[in-house]
């Protein structure tokens, strides 16, 4: 029994949900992948997968084994990289997941520069606003702009993401300009309702903290939509500055309540726990920390 081959086959079946797709990615036949998994289950004396004609998914034993198998395979990959001196010439595939808006507005130029610096690496970038499972979905690094809940994953802070309360000049002309957070109770709000705080807004000023439950007309999980609807004069929005910035510069949006601030969100790099972080993941995260930290310094924050 080739234990390493069995582990790789099993892990790939769990990641893809399919023996056929696992075989395609491993360049093995479906029957070979099935044989490896069967040998692994026989050696353990337990069933690891629930099988149908089209799909395979881990049962409770399988999920526990999969998580440990990923650590083992990651350790082997890290050992291979160390022996091959990949610190100087990193290569191989790096799978990255990132939020849609951040990816389209800010991440593209950084990715291009990273590829220039490390030309022998392959990057697979998947943009999605869904809350993915880095382990289950097979990502090496997941970028999140959030208030993170407790997790078994490791999170490294990359940079703060300030937010701004804003509305269109037309909206403010029709409804008046709020001068205090309590004034927001008389305005229509556009909210991002997928934070730990729910739809509540927290604004802090010289007179302390203010928690506002806005009367919202739109709740959406994409801040670009909030920006576009705010530009059309449909309400007051609390938006990350990197998304509102161009509209603010062009005068299509106006920042309000400038004597108060919302706690910034944070851009995190999230990855599964391993004793030795793979070189390619470490290099990518270090690059983002340096890149976006430099941009913060230029803004004077």
From TrEMBL:
Gene3D superfamilies recorded: 3.40.190.290, Winged helix-like DNA-binding domain superfamily/Winged helix DNA-binding domain
Question: HTH lysR-type domain location, by residue?
Answer: 1-59
The organism's superkingdom is given as Bacteria
Q: Provide a GO biological process annotation.
A: DNA-templated transcription
Q: Which UniProt keywords apply?
A: DNA-binding, Transcription, Transcription regulation
Q: Name one GO molecular function term.
A: DNA-binding transcription factor activity
Q: Which InterPro entries match?
A: LysR-type_TF_proteobact-type, LysR_HTH_N, LysR_subst-bd, WH-like_DNA-bd_sf, WH_DNA-bd_sf
Pfam families this protein is in? HTH_1 (PF00126), LysR_substrate (PF03466)
Family that this chain belongs to: Belongs to the LysR transcriptional regulatory family.
What the protein does comes down to:
NodD regulates the expression of the nodABCFE genes which encode other nodulation proteins. NodD is also a negative regulator of its own expression. Binds flavonoids as inducers.
This chain belongs to the protein called LysR family transcriptional regulator
State the organism named in the record. Answer: Bradyrhizobium uaiense
Q: What is the lineage of its organism?
A: Bacteria, Pseudomonadati, Pseudomonadota, Alphaproteobacteria, Hyphomicrobiales
